[in-house]
Amino acid sequence: MHYNRVHLIYFSPTHTSAKIAYAIAEGLDAVTFSESDITHETPDKIENVEEELTIIAVPVYGGRVAETAIERLRMFRSNQAPVIPVVLYGNRDYEDALKELCDLVTELGFIPVMAGAFIGEHSFSRKDMPIAAGRPDDMDIQKAMTLGKDVLKKLSSLRSLEDITPLQVKGNFPYKIKGASTPQAPVTDEELCTQCEYCIEICPTDAISILDTGMFSNPERCIKCCACVKECPEGARTFDTPYTAMLHKNFSARKEPELFI
Ligand SMILES: Cc1cc2nc3c(=O)[nH]c(=O)nc-3n(C[C@H](O)[C@H](O)[C@H](O)COP(=O)(O)O)c2cc1C
């Protein structure tokens, strides 16, 4: 089987999922490729993906697929397009996230061909307490490209997608129960903030607005992705959580991507 068209779908507030999706696509050597970046908005109608080899990449939040990504992915359908489901996690663990993603895309009509769990710099990583800083790095990107090449080989050895044996990935069902979300959000140092509104532009859940008193992050809407912290041009945004020190202390030893073929 051969596919000329590749379609990327990703939710990626701090870009690590997107980077891996692109690297896999490079390995696939497609003639044409298109993308659905669902980081900032939910598709306004159901989108059908047909005849396209698809890569779906999303981050792990609390050992599960980020909830906003799940909501947005539910707007896609396929009639048996092959898919490469991928999760990015911050060097702690991805627990049930890859299984949850594989189950979801199967329910939506895709057929998982191969899957992967890659490591991305943790959203809560800071310069003084790094957690997987700089990941994915060159080695990760190479591994992602190789995954793309392996998918091509696997597909070319098949006469029909019906010949694919159901993909087994790490993870359990019932999935890990989600912990209660603490209503907390990054804060702004008003001395540094120039009110350029870039944080408002890049926030995936429209959680930030300007009030008379300065920038306001609505803790009920904020998903703590920390895109605004990492990308504020003035370094005016911080997210203070005890998880940063705990993760830095316990999960600094390098983990490697895991592939399911
Ligand atoms: C709310 C939240 C929960 C997270 N939970 C986990 C986790 O359970 N395990 C882990 O290793 N990383 C966890 N992370 C880190 C992200 O999975 C990681 O930074 C990922 O690379 C972000 O993807 P993105 O760059 O595409 O946004 C979490 C991040 C956030 C914001």
From TrEMBL:
GO terms for MF: 4 iron, 4 sulfur cluster binding; FMN binding; metal ion binding
SUPFAM superfamilies: 4Fe-4S ferredoxins (SSF54862), Flavoproteins (SSF52218)
Gene3D superfamilies the record matches: 3.30.70.20, 3.40.50.360
Domain of life assignment: Bacteria
Start and end residues of each 4Fe-4S ferredoxin-type domain: 184-213, 218-242
Keyword Metal-binding: yes
Protein name from the UniProt record: 4Fe-4S binding domain-containing protein
Natural source organism: Parabacteroides chinchillae
